[in-house]
Specification:
The chain has about 170 residues and is an all-alpha fold. It contains eight helices and no strands.
């Protein structure tokens, strides 16, 4: 007889959704709405399957928490709407405390990578650095156009959020 472990199913499904999001974000700098919607629905369904009707509230609170944390960055032009929707879908799997932790990890990763990107842009704009690293005409322009596929940072944060119970860590 076939039996399944619900937490393993949740983690595997989340991993599959995040893998698809990272691949599409790397290729096209977009995260499809359909992917986010399916991930959100499956996350909520698995929350209900795990804990009954109360799981719906756990999942919805995670959706709101995850999306609310990244929404200000979207409004300021720092990320796309797909990133916000993906973080909301991750919240459906992890609940509010997991979504909070999972959203903070990408912000730190994004900050570090963004700082490195800004430094790289400054190096490319500095004339002598263009000669040192082998860039010539137009390299500075292409450096300004670099975009960060944030789905990868969200995936890392989701893994961290699913492995660590942030409320338990804070209490202990």
């Amino acid at each position: 007889m076939f039996t399944f472990d619900l937490p393993v199913l949740k983690l595997g499904t989340l991993a599959a959704c995040l893998t698809a999001a990272v691949i599409t974000d790397l290729r096209s700098h977009r995260i499809p709405n359909r992917l986010c919607a399916v991930a959100l629905a499956v996350g909520l369904l698995l929350q209900v399957a795990a804990t009954g009707a109360g799981g719906l509230w756990v999942g919805l609170s995670g959706v709101l928490t995850g999306a609310a944390i990244l929404l200000p960055f979207y409004f300021r032009g720092g990320m796309g709407a797909g990133d916000v929707k993906l973080m909301g879908a991750v919240g459906a799997f992890l609940g509010a405390s997991g979504a909070l932790f999972a959203a903070m990890v990408p912000l730190v990763i994004g900050g570090v990578l963004g700082g490195g990107l800004m430094l790289w842009k400054q190096i490319c704009l500095w004339g002598a650095a263009n000669e040192i690293v082998g860039f010539h005409n137009g390299a500075a322009v292409s450096a300004w156009e670099l975009k960060f596929p944030y789905a990868a940072a969200i995936a890392i944060g989701a893994v961290a959020g699913s492995c660590v119970d942030p409320l338990r860590v804070l209490v202990e």
